[in-house]
Design brief:
It is a single chain. About 65% of the residues lie in helices and about 0% in strands. The chain has 16 helices and no strands. Helix 6 runs parallel beside helix 8, helix 9 runs antiparallel to helix 10 (about 180-190) and helix 10 (about 180-190) runs parallel beside helix 12.
């Protein structure tokens, strides 16, 4: 059965930037010495930027920032916010430039440094990323954002047990703004070490706290598929498609579960649409092959006895 894409971070989604330090764009960063009128303008602009990012319009948010930057050339928080927007857009080189500009004014700010580390990681410079993460953890061994990014560093390498161990070091920080995202990453780790029932617990809690997060919905859909609950899986992917109709992976998975539920004509139409959107996507091609060459599987639900008590935290 297809379904191996159990939750590697999707670089073209906004998740990568939201996982930085968990701050809103520019919060706790920047020059507060400017006059009150200017400070109020910047705060209002940053609030608008956050609103646009939440509405999946980071490109427009970035352009807003670029319009005012000539008038606030020394604004650390605006450069940082621009970096976050570029990360949302998948423009990691541009994000790195923006974070580096913010770092000129606040070189020791951990949020700015994590932005740089995250950009390095997504640009396939893991050694530079890891160096920054370790430096931050030397001074603050419980830094939420640093552990979160360290876990994603291990995820990129398929080291799911190490990611799990890293995330569990900060699992007790329930008040952190990115705690729902952490829960989702824990779910992804359990899913990838073939413990879908444990994974589902984390996805459910993450969605209880942040019900509109489409990436967590996507991952829960994969989890339901691993549990052979294909109707629930399809429902989650339909939600993702409603919010992002151009998500080729979601279209492909929804086609797969339509096929498993006996809806082959609908599945064929949907998988062809996904392939048209992303013709070089290996996952879509694999799902298409399964739909055209295989029979739907039996609906046999896994037993909780299939998942032992070991949480898989041993070294890989």
């Amino acid at each position: 059965m297809v379904g191996e894409r159990h939750g590697k971070p999707r670089a073209d989604k906004s998740e990568s930037s939201k996982s930085l330090p968990g701050n809103k764009s520019g919060k706790n960063i920047g020059n507060k010495a400017r006059d009150a009128k200017e400070q109020k303008f910047v705060e209002k602009l940053l609030a608008r930027v956050d609103e646009l990012r939440q509405k999946n319009s980071p490109d427009y948010a970035a352009r807003l920032i670029e319009r005012v930057l000539p008038y606030f050339a020394f604004s650390t928080e605006l450069y940082y916010a621009l970096g976050c927007c570029e990360m949302d857009c998948g423009s990691f080189t541009a994000a790195l430039r923006a974070f580096a500009a913010a770092g000129i004014f606040e070189p020791e700010n951990p949020d700015v440094r994590l932005g740089i580390a995250n950009a390095f990681l997504l640009l396939n410079w893991p050694e530079r990323s890891l160096s920054i993460i370790k430096e931050i953890l030397k001074t603050d061994h419980k830094h939420f954002g640093a552990h979160l990014l360290y876990g994603q560093y291990h995820e990129e390498r398929g080291e799911w047990n190490r990611s799990l161990a890293e995330y569990r070091l900060i699992e007790d920080q329930h008040d952190h703004p990115s705690h729902p995202h952490l829960l989702a990453r824990l779910g992804v780790c359990f899913l990838n070490i073939e413990k879908p029932l444990r994974a589902l617990e984390y996805f459910e809690e993450a969605l209880r706290l942040l019900p509109d997060d489409i990436e967590t919905r996507f991952q829960r859909g994969v989890c339901f598929g691993a549990l052979n609950e294909f109707d629930k899986a399809l429902s989650d992917f339909e939600y993702v498609i409603e919010k992002d109709p151009l998500d080729g992976d979601a279209l492909a998975y929804s086609a797969l579960y339509q096929f498993y539920l006996g809806q082959k004509p609908q599945a064929v139409a949907r998988i062809e649409k996904a392939l048209e959107l992303q013709p070089g996507n290996e996952l879509i091609s694999d799902i298409r092959e399964e739909i055209f060459t295989s029979a739907p599987p039996d609906h046999q639900l896994p037993s909780s006895e299939d998942e032992d008590e070991d949480d898989g935290e041993e070294e890989e």
